[in-house]
Amino acid sequence: MARTYASFPAIYELVREIPEGQVASYGMVASLLPGVTPRIVGFAMAATPAGEGIPWQRVINSAGQISERDGAARQRTRLEEEGISFKPSGKVDWAKHRWHGPSEAWLEKHSIDFMDFLTIQAGWPG
Hints:
Layout: H1 8-15, E1 24-25, H2 26-30, H3 38-46, E2 59-60, H4 72-81, H5 94-97, H6 104-109, H7 114-121
Parallel strand pairs: 1-2
């Protein structure tokens, strides 16, 4: 049985902020949501409801790789179709494809000061 958490809707709202051609790590998403861990983000991505426009494929691990699991090949294909390139090591080039963060509207809605966001962002990979 899949795990579900009250935080899943907030995670999905934030993941919708990741544009085509960019990727975020589970930890990057978690860093913007109180009480959410990278593992919970992973559970949310695994339980993403179909047909709701949630770009689950854009969330990868902090090493810049797609985690080994069922669906990994499909995730890579989707990312490549969006223009994401992979190094020979299988890692995404963070410098080219790292998500820059949510919109100012999202930050404002969630009462995150822009300077606080920059401090959070400084801890992101890449």
